[in-house]
């Protein structure tokens, strides 16, 4: 390993005068790329340095630990690569100043000289450290998607799965997509017209961070001050005064009114007036609002307000759709016809399949009004994304895809020719090994994952089929349609009654495609930053395997050490271990896998009408497009983005109105008011502040857990007894008796 950790001492830099001027034909055809990405490269910059490996592996391990740790909490903060991107810069410079510069030889490497400190900390090292960190945050998902399968088996179904089967499931689902990406890299990374808009944000931040910083308040100093403040403050909402996380004052004023608490509860109602003083509640689910553009915040707010404050009240109080008032207005739990929590474990037999007689005894599954409409809007979002992209971007996508074959190479692709490319057999070997191991999992260990071998092949075929078109859509429009509902719907129809088979199929079919798109996105970042392709590949692969392993280790530790984890009805009111994301994943396994879509959204279920959302979502963008063509002078018409409006509440549940309200408010303050009136401050410190707030909360939360949480040393007073909206979960229909609720 010493040869990989140490970097050969750099040679002389090339004389810029010996390089010919750039041909105008080489310049990128995309204006945004021309304005953001430099047309130069220094191939002598050291990349595989001790600093890169140390900071990269440490960042990957730390983020995978923290994100998995937070995944079980009521406010599951996701710490992204931006935190590491900002935090490792001063550390890298410090290491460059303090590490010894002595050069030495290593036996077996001839006369080559090595050094643990080959020179100043450079931008290419920084990019690779950030790619490591991105793998540690599961490319923005927080933790490996397949960990949720382990969680629902152990915490919700109360069954067992071995550590080996769990590890193989996590690693294969994470790595399989790399094979698809390798086969398609030539089509969606190298062509200039495949420009991947989201990568330009990263390029801009890298360039800003590596400019000379001669201000009195440097970014590093600001980061340290903000981190200390965030770290210190989180002791209050995290332990001393947990009610600060969800201040739902309407419930305090109307302490005996069910309807008022349904309206005012930020966690279990519509969240009208609810606020938070907890950064983890602001940044959970939707990520930090400081890094989201204001126009996107407003699009999400418009869709959120339309659904939460217009559609839901009309459906619940006005129309009482599907007997909505028999159930809570906002809940991800499943219910019986009498408003009681559905006993899921009672309808699972010894073979981990649906027990038909027990199901018939309890009756059909019912959903809260919001949960039912969530699926409806999810159907509409998928359909509207496809038609919106086809009608508004179809010609542009076709032209750019055609140009990627016929157009000349731009300067960035030409500069990358200096570096050794990744041999195709690397990807073929990875794909073959991953599929082989996955087939072993589905045959030898089939009793633990339920999925038949043909299910794996079908999921892989579906993922590979969709990876190219969805990559092209993402690379040109920055919109990524998800396959999760499509995959679970398909498997639920083909093989109902097997919940784990359904979620495994969804994970192989959906996550391998999502991983492929993330892999290609990072490769485009490396393309713009002129990172050697083989370095990119190895960093992504090693980071993914390391992160997945740590994710599972942390999950196993918490699942076996915290009593009643994820069982919110059995936990104390101030317990943070409610697992909101896994609750929704579990419900999905019941709806699509155990019971099956036919008994929920089909002829044998209550919600067959929800399938019309597919049609409505598909036709909506076509109507907008026709209006745009009929009235071309009306510039506001093409701004109607139905996929964003319909998908605005896509994170709810598990996200709550409290999260959305706080996210929109903070995002508006920083990305509208501060951006408009204090632009220089925003440009220097906005991303740094976001990273510091994330890091401060994360470190204090871990400290609190190990200092007082392990031994359950909690405080008991009004400020630690939850939200104080106990009646928000009550039904409002007459004759429905629920414990703790007034009977009408």
Radius of gyration using CA atoms only:
26 Å
Please, how many helices? 28
Mean pLDDT over the residues: 86
According to DSSP, the number of beta strands is 4
Estimate what percentage of residues fall within beta strands: under 5%
Q: Which structural class is indicated by helix and strand composition?
A: mainly alpha
The end-to-end span amounts to 71 Å
Share in helix: 55-70%
Strand order of the largest sheet: 1-2
Low-confidence stretches: 1-20
Biggest sheet layout: 2 strands, antiparallel
Shape: globular
Structure description:
- The chain is mostly helical.
- Helices cover 59% and strands 1% of the residues.
- It has 28 helices and four strands.
- It has helices at 2-5, 31-36, 50-71, 81-98, 123-136, 147-156, 163-188, 198-209, 219-233, 235-240, 249-253, 258-264, 279-283, 294-318, 356-362, 369-406, 411-416, 424-443, 446-449, 453-477, 484-494, 499-529, 533-561, 580-594, 612-630, 642-646, 657-677, 679-709; strands at 7-8, 114-115, 334-335, 366-367.
- The strands form two sheets. Strands 1-2 form a two-stranded antiparallel ribbon. A two-stranded antiparallel ribbon has the order 3-4.
- Helix 5 packs parallel to helix 23 (533-561), helix 16 packs across helix 20 and helix 21 runs antiparallel to helix 22.
- The longest helix is centred in the middle third of the chain and has 38 residues, at 369-406.
- It is globular.
- The N and C termini lie far apart (71 Å).
- Mean pLDDT is 86; it is low at 1-20.
């Amino acid at each position: 390993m010493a040869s990989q950790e140490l970097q050969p001492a750099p040679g002389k830099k090339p004389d810029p005068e010996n390089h010919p001027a750039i041909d105008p034909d080489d310049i990128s055809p995309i204006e945004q790329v021309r304005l953001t990405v430099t047309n130069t490269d220094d191939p002598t910059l050291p990349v595989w340095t001790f600093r890169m490996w140390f900071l990269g592996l440490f960042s990957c391990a730390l983020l995978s630990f923290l994100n998995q740790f937070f995944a079980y909490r009521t406010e599951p903060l996701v710490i992204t690569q931006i935190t590491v991107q900002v935090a490792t810069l001063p550390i890298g410079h410090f290491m460059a100043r303090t590490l010894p510069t002595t050069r030495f030889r290593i036996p077996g490497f001839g006369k080559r000289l090595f050094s643990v400190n080959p020179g100043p900390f450079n931008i290419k090292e920084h990019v690779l450290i950030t790619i490591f960190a991105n793998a540690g945050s599961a490319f923005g998902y927080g933790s490996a998607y397949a960990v949720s399968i382990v969680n629902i088996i152990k915490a919700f179904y109360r069954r067992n799965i071995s550590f080996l089967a769990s590890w193989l499931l996590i690693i294969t689902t994470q790595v399989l997509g790399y094979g698809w990406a390798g086969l398609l890299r030539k089509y969606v990374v190298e062509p200039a017209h495949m420009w991947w808009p989201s990568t330009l944000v990263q390029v801009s931040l890298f360039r800003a961070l590596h400019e000379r910083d001669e201000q009195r308040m440097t970014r590093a100093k600001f980061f340290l001050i903000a981190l200390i403040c965030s770290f210190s403050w989180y002791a209050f909402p995290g332990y001393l005064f947990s009610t600060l996380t969800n201040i739902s004052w309407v419930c305090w004023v109307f302490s005996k009114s069910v309807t008022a608490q349904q309206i005012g509860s930020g966690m279990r109602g519509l969240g009208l007036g609810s606020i938070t003083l907890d950064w983890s509640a602001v940044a959970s689910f939707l990520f930090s609002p400081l890094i989201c553009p204001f126009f996107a915040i407003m699009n999400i707010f418009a869709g959120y307000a339309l659904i939460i404050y217009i559609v839901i009240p009309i459906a619940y109080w006005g129309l009482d759709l599907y007997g909505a008032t028999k159930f809570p207005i906002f809940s991800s739990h499943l219910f019986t016809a009498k408003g009681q929590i559905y006993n899921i474990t009672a309808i699972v037999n010894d073979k981990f399949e649906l027990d038909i007689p027990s199901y018939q005894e309890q009756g059909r599954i019912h959903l809260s009004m919001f949960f039912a409409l969530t699926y409806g809007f999810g159907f509409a979002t998928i359909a509207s994304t496809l038609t919106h992209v086809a009608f508004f971007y179809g010609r542009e996508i076709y032209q750019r895809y055609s140009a990627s074959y016929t157009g000349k190479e731009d300067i960035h692709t030409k500069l990358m020719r200096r570096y050794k490319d990744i041999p195709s057999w690397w990807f073929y070997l990875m794909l073959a090994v991953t599929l082989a191991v996955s087939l072993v999992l589905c045959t030898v260990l089939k009793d633990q994952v339920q999925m038949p071998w043909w299910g794996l092949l079908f999921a892989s075929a579906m993922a590979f089929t969709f990876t190219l078109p969805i990559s092209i859509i993402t690379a040109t429009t920055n919109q990524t349609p998800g396959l999760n509902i499509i995959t679970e719907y398909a498997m639920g129809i083909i093989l109902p009654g097997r919940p784990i088979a359904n979620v495994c199929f969804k994970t192989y079919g959906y996550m391998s495609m999502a991983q492929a798109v993330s892999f290609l996105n990072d490769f485009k970042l490396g393309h713009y930053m002129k990172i050697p392709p083989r370095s990119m590949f190895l960093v992504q692969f090693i980071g993914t395997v390391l992160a997945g392993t740590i994710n599972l280790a942390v999950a196993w530790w918490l699942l076996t050490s915290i009593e009643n984890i994820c069982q919110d009805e059995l936990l104390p009111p101030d317990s943070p271990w409610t697992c909101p994301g896994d609750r929704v994943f579990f419900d999905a396994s019941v709806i699509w896998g155990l019971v099956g879509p036919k008994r929920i959204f089909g002829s044998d279920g209550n919600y067959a009408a929800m399938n019309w959302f597919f049609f409505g979502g598909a036709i909506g963008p076509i109507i907008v497009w026709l209006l745009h063509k009929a009235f071309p002078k009306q510039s506001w018409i093409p701004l109607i983005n139905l996929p964003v409006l319909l998908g605005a509440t896509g994170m709810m549940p598990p996200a709550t109105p409290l999260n959305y309200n706080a996210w929109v408010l903070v995002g508006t303050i920083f990305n509208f008011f501060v951006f408009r009136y204090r632009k220089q401050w925003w440009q220097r410190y906005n991303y740094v502040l976001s990273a510091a707030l994330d890091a401060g909360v994360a470190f204090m939360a871990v400290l609190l857990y190990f200092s007082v949480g392990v031994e359950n040393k909690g405080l008991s007073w009004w400020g630690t007894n939850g939200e104080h909206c106990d009646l928000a979960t009550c039904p409002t229909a007459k004759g429905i008796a629920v414990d703790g609720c007034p009977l009408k």
